[in-house]
Structures are given as structure tokens and as C-alpha cells.
Amino acid sequence: MSVNLDRILIIDYGSQYTQLIARRVREVGIYSEIYPPNISKEKMGDFRPSGVILSGSPDSVSNDTVDVEGLPLFVALGVPILGICFGMQSLACYTGGEVETSQEKEFGFAQVRARGHSRLLEGIQDATNESKHGLLDVWMSHGDSVTKLPPGFKVIASTLNTPIAGIADEVRKFYGLQFHPEVTHTKRGKEILERFCVEICGCAKSWSTEDFIKSSLRSIEGEIGTEKVLLGLSGGVDSSVAASLLHKAIGDQLICVFVDNGLLRLGEAEQVINTFQESMGLNIRFVNAQNEFLEALAGVTDPEEKRKIIGKKFIEVFERESLTIAGVSWLAQGTIYPDVIESAADGAGSHVIKSHHNVGGLPEHMKLKLIEPLRLLFKDEVRKVGKELGVPDDIVLRHPFPGPGLAVRVLGEVKSSYLEVLREADNIFIEEIRDANLYHKISQAFAVFLPIFSVGVKGDARSYEHVIALRAITTDDFMTAECVELDQQFLERVAAKIVNQVPNVSRVVYDVTSKPPGTIEWE
Predict the structure, then answer these.
(1) Could you give the domains of the chain?
(2) Which residues are catalytic?
(3) How far is CA 293 from the centre of its chain?
(4) Residues of the chain with pLDDT under 50
(5) pTM for the structure as a whole
(6) CA distances (Å), 486 to each of 168, 285, 494, 507, in order?
């Protein structure tokens, strides 16, 4: 990252929407990073922000365990501050206001009325509500509310249930919003964030994937020097783009290791080796560790434990492989920002959603140094970087595949027989999606093996076999997602093929759960 970029500091108090704030800011063309609320001035180092955004939180400002002690540091920076939900409440408390638990909690859609003029909201309202005197469709999620304004602040927005839904101190450029401008449900939310970053903080729109690539190449070259790097290549978007970026920076010093862990999709090992050796010219070593992984997973049913076992086993395989290659000092991974946030967010009140195998599964003491060149990028940014680097479209535009592979798509214990069934069912589903020209209209689609039995009828005889669940979602950011409304006849055709062609399956169901409340993967 160029040190000359304007940037926004985002303080994570634990909201699962925090990374959406960062993503929306970057979409505007302004660099942003997420830091914990207890960050020290020393740890911030050269990160000199043009503005600060305080995130929401699952906690309450009345909770003594919530860390808001960092606020003096952020206020002392002398830059504009925007508090969102909990961030607004903590800012209000710190500057002399009061917050109480609301009698009427608001979760979900609401309409905010802009009150008076403020640099933040002036002229911003939902176009469909122009005749309603400044009503704005927004997304609320709070149980506490500001009940007394701090000195120097004015009310800039309200709802029927929340008289103080927005506050502003125009002199100090401190603002607070009770609603969430970062989620797509707030129709003009991106404009509000752009107004704050560009007009109020004075940031130039200078962040781009081209800038990221240039600065990353310089950084990688300087950090790696003449040492060799081992990268675990899965064939997914993230590890593929990481491999391409590293290869451009250090060339033959990069050795890619493709581990067949027995948890891959049908024909995936052959496809990855052919694509990356022939199309991209990468140096790839193939390691067959199927038995090793499956033995380590035997009897394990908890998804968190499965992820951590797989992460640890990957490191063991890589470190073992590194001993056969002279000069290897680094382990590279395709870790991206959502992996880090979901595994263990930095916020004081953050809740782990699920450990990603390359984050939560890493051992405390590794023999190899770790380099993660995509660690601060979101999925859409990774794809843009891949396109800039010339990674083939069939890789860049491929649906995401979880690092732990089919281990988290076989619910409960992972068995070879279950994996065989799942591979066949998943392949049928994806082939049908491609044949219907739906693949690039869907963000992610896959099959899930359910370790339960269901009664069926095959050849006029009773069957009692397993269940396959199908999932297809659409999303812009993979932090929120909606179920794809697939045609009923299409689903019936897929179900019939799976039941008729895949042994030991008697029933197929379709998952219609959005994210939230569900996650995209079942485990």
C-alpha cells in the first residue's frame, strides 16, 4: 500500500458488518483498514488516517467489559469521526451524552427523517420518498439509544421509535448514525459514507487494484529477498491470485505445493495441475496426503475442530515438504480479509463465526515465516487483482471453494464413502447449472451431504438412504447473501438425476436460508 494514500481508520467493536464498512469505503476509491478499539498509537505506526469510523457491536455501552477506552486516542487524532450504531452511542457517552436501553428496540427496516441540515445527510434521501419530506429507507439493529445529546451536538435524523437516530457536531466534525449505512438495505448508505470520506474528511479517491499490485510487488520483493516461498495451492480464487502475485514478484523462488487431501471435488486434482502448470507456468509439486487427512478427521464431528485439524495438517505437510527444498523460509497463503474477520475479529466484542482453516488452524509455533499478500483484500478485490495479473477467467470467476474442502460439506464425521456420494451429487448440480447458463449468475452453488437417512422408493422397493442438500446464493460481498430462486422444473431435474445416478441417496432438498441468519457454508 502506498504511504501517500488518504485512508480511513475503522474501529471494530465487534459488529459482523464491520468489514462491510471497509469494503464500502474502498468501493468509493479510498483505502481503509480495520483496527481493534484497544489499538495503541505505537501499533498504529504510520497509519495516519484522514478520518475514523466507529463500528457497531453486539454489546451494549452499559456493559463494563466493552472497551471504549481507545476513544481519547481517536478523538486526539483531530480528524472527523463517524460513529455507527454502538459507535454513535460510545461517541455520545464519551462527549457528555447519555445512552439508555430502549423500550422499543429496532431490528430491520426503518424509515429515518432527516431533521435540519448537516453536511453528512443534506440532500441525501431515498429517491422513492422525495415527496415524504426527507424520509430515508435504512437498516436498524439496536437495543440501546442516545437519550441526551452531548454538548455541541444537534439531532440530524430521527424515526418514530428513535427520536435521536443521527447526531452531529459540525465544529469538530463528529457524526453519529443509529442506522447502518454500510448494508445494502440502507438505499443511500454508500452515498452517506462517500459524503463522510470525501467531502468531510477530504480524502482523494486514490485507492485501486493497480495501486495495490504495484505496492505489493515492491513489498514482497523487499521482504522475501533471495529466499524461497512455499505456497499451498488449492485451485481456488484466493490461492491462485496469491500464487500469480508472488510469481510476478519473485519468479522461480515460488514453489507451489498442491496437496490432494482427499477432500476435493470430482476431478479437481487433475484440473488444477493442468491449468497452473500449462497456462500459468508455475512450479508445482503434487503431494498425495489423502489417507493422512482422513485418518486425522476420523471420528471428528465438530466443524470447528475439523477446520483446525485440517489447518494444522496442511502446515505439517507443507513444513515436511519444505525440508526437501533447499532455501525455503516462507509459507504463503491465500488468506483474505473475510477469513480473518470471521475467524477472530479484532473488535472488543467480536464473536467468532467460524475458524478458517488457514487462520484458526495455524499452530502457535511454525518453522516457516508466514506471508499472506491478499490478507487485506475482499473477495471482489481479489478477483480484480487476478484479472489485472492475467489469471484465466475460469479460475478468477470460479465459485469459491472452502479451504477445508468437502470436510465442511459433509456434516458430522467425514468418511470416504460420504465424500464419494457428495462428489457425484455436487458434480451433477454444477453441470446442470452450467448447462442452464446460470453459473455466472450465481455467486456460489454446491451440494451438502447430510448424515441422516430418509425413506424412499426405488424400483418399486423401499429404500432408506441419505439426503443431499443443494445451496445456491447470490451476493456482492459474501458477508450477506440471498438464496437464488431456481426454477422448480430445474430443481426437479437435478434432484431426479442425483437420486437416480448417485448410489445411496434417496432424497434431495434445497436450502432457502439467507445470510444472515445462516452462513453460506453449512459448517
Answers:
(1) 7-200 (3.40.50.880), 209-396 (3.40.50.620), 416-510 (3.30.300.10)
(2) 85, 180, 182
(3) 26
(4) 1-3, 130-131, 344-361
(5) 0.70
(6) 46, 40, 11, 18
